[in-house]
UniProtKB/TrEMBL annotation:
SMART domains: AMP_N (SM01011). Keywords: Aminopeptidase, Hydrolase, Manganese, Metal-binding, Protease. GO terms for cellular component: cytosol. Its cofactor is Mn(2+). One of its GO terms (molecular function) is manganese ion binding. Residues 1-13 have a biased composition (Acidic residues). Its EC number is 3.4.11.9. InterPro entries: Aminopep_P_N, Creatin/AminoP/Spt16_N, Creatinase/aminopeptidase-like, Pept_M24, Peptidase_M24B_aminopep-P_CS, X-Pro_dipept-like. One of its GO terms (biological process) is proteolysis. It comes from the Bacteria. This is Xaa-Pro aminopeptidase. It catalyses: Release of any N-terminal amino acid, including proline, that is linked to proline, even from a dipeptide or tripeptide. Belongs to the peptidase M24B family.
Length: 483
């Protein structure tokens, strides 16, 4: 039987059979039949991936930062959702940023060399036909699809490729200083357990996070692609608001998800499809509430491209196409705050400037409306506006929706903006349904407007300018889509 042969050939990783499968085993005759009679499907003359030159430059910068040290960057492994089903795999940002590869179990290793480092990408090769893996393993080719051969991978990524199954032993035998990006591959970390320290590994993660603060030309293009698809996804939602009214927020979520899957890899984060008072919950992702005419819909969603760059856009829309007087009053205040924030995004400006500019406008409105006692300087000094503004006005954007999160404070929120940085500007006002400190007409209204802003040499570019922001323009846009 094939199980016995496989166990003998590969004692460490036998091909596991489902406990209650309908076939108890494999005859020798079937095993032999499955080994032969297959066409050669090796791909030849593959062109390098679009970002290959950029990933090479990133590896060069990484090499220069850590001379003489072995650097290990895993992609990560599949994670079980339930029993024998897995979550969709998404490669670690660090690995994808340095290689362009998006497959599970991959590991990039930079080994010290006389002139810097030698890079090797360790991957699973094509699934084995000799031991039956390709059709008997749950991760075999006939079950989950074809993997690239190592030769194909070398052509695509421009990096020498080796079998990742040999890597743990190589790492156990390695000498000299080593750093690894932690949290993605327990097996790789176990092989390095006596060679690494948490402090040194954290320095590697910080460097890779800070390297992404300034986007190169390829990255800026991918972010624009993500935003353009997101704009189309918002248009899709407006066209089906009547169906969402007949069902729930889930209809909005599913509508946007369709666009993300057709034009991109996925959504970049859980879509926030918050109608009515749900808009006051910052990360409302249950999306199981009603959609009612007369309420507002806060839609915060982004398409992720096939290279893992995500958009992050928010619009607050009147479900029936027209803002009420109080809704417009609050919306226009947030719009004015966002205008001030976007204007403050300039090369040479402090990162915090856009937040401060937007918060000042919102504080002024809250004082003007009599919701908080002035003067405005006092409100800002004590942070009193935060009862209704709640969150920061933006964040870096890229391969993570909250990109560069491991960067040092002095290179992120305390830094100066540079051309190539991309960030969101997203002020909001949220009047909770149970907030007795505001007039009843305010309660249950939440408004956020968010755009993706690229810092340029002479100012900024709003990547999401394709979506109207001003209240009258939003109403006209919605009318044009719904007829």
């Amino acid at each position: 039987m094939l199980e016995d042969a496989a166990d003998q050939a590969d004692e460490e990783e036998p091909i596991k059979q489902r406990k209650n499968g309908l076939y108890p085993g494999v005859s020798d005759e079937l095993a032999e039949s499955m080994k032969s009679g297959w066409a050669d499907t090796e791909l030849h003359g593959l062109e390098p991936i679009a970002q290959a030159a950029h990933t090479a430059a990133r590896r060069t910068a990484l090499s220069a930062r850590f001379p003489g040290e072995r650097l290990v960057v895993p992609a990560g492994n599949l994670k079980t959702r339930s029993n024998d089903t897995e979550y969709p795999f998404r490669a670690s940002v660090e690995y994808a940023y340095l290689t362009g590869s998006l497959t599970e179990d991959g590991v990039l290793v930079l080994e010290p060399a006389a002139d810097g480092h030698k890079a090797t990408i360790y991957l699973l090769p094509r699934s084995d036909r000799e031991n039956g893996e390709f059709w008997l393993s749950g991760q075999g080719e006939l079950w989950v699809g074809r993997r690239h051969s190592l030769t194909e991978a070398e052509q695509l990524y421009g990096i020498p490729a080796s079998d990742v199954r040999e890597l743990p032993e190589k790492l156990r035998e390695a000498t000299g200083p080593v750093r690894v990006v932690r949290g993605y591959d327990a097996g790789i970390e176990a092989a390095l357990t006596d060679k690494v320290t948490a402090e040194r590994d954290a320095e590697l993660r910080v460097f890779l996070s800070e390297a992404r603060l300034v986007k190169d030309e390829f990255e800026a293009g991918e972010l624009q692609k993500a935003v353009d698809s997101t704009v189309r996804g918002f248009e899709d939602v407006v066209r089906v608001l009547d169906r969402a009214e007949a069902t729930s927020e889930r209809y909005i979520e599913g509508t946007f998800f369709l666009r993300a899957r057709v034009e991109g890899n996925d959504i970049g984060y859980g879509s926030i499809c918050a109608a009515g008072p749900h808009a006051c919950t910052l990360h409302w992702v249950r999306n199981d509430g009603p959609v009612r005419s007369g309420d507002l819909l806060l839609l915060d969603a982004g398409v992720e491209t096939h290279t893992l760059y995500t958009a992050d856009v928010t619009r607050t829309l009147p479900v029936n196409g027209t803002y009420s007087e109080i809704q417009k009053k609050i919306y226009d205040a947030v719009y004015e705050a966002q205008e001030a924030g976007i204007a403050a995004v300039q090369p040479g400006a402090k990162y915090r400037d856009f937040h401060d500019a937007a918060q000042r406008v919102l504080a002024e409105k809250l004082v003007e409306w009599g919701l908080v006692e002035g003067p405005v300087e006092r409100v800002l000094e004590l942070g009193l506006q935060r009862r209704w503004t709640l969150h920061g006005t933006g964040h870096m954007l890229g391969m993570d929706v909250h990109d560069c999160a491991a960067a040092r404070t002095e290179t992120y929120v305390d830094a100066t903006l540079e051309p190539g940085m991309c960030l969101t500007v997203e002020p909001g006002l949220y009047f909770q349904a149970d907030d007795l400190t505001v007039p009843e007409e305010y309660r249950g209204i939440g408004v956020r407007i968010e755009d993706d802003i690229l810092v340029t040499e002479d100012g900024n570019r709003n990547l999401s300018a394709g979506l109207p922001r001003r209240s009258d323009e939003v109403e006209a846009w919605m009318a044009s889509l719904t007829g």
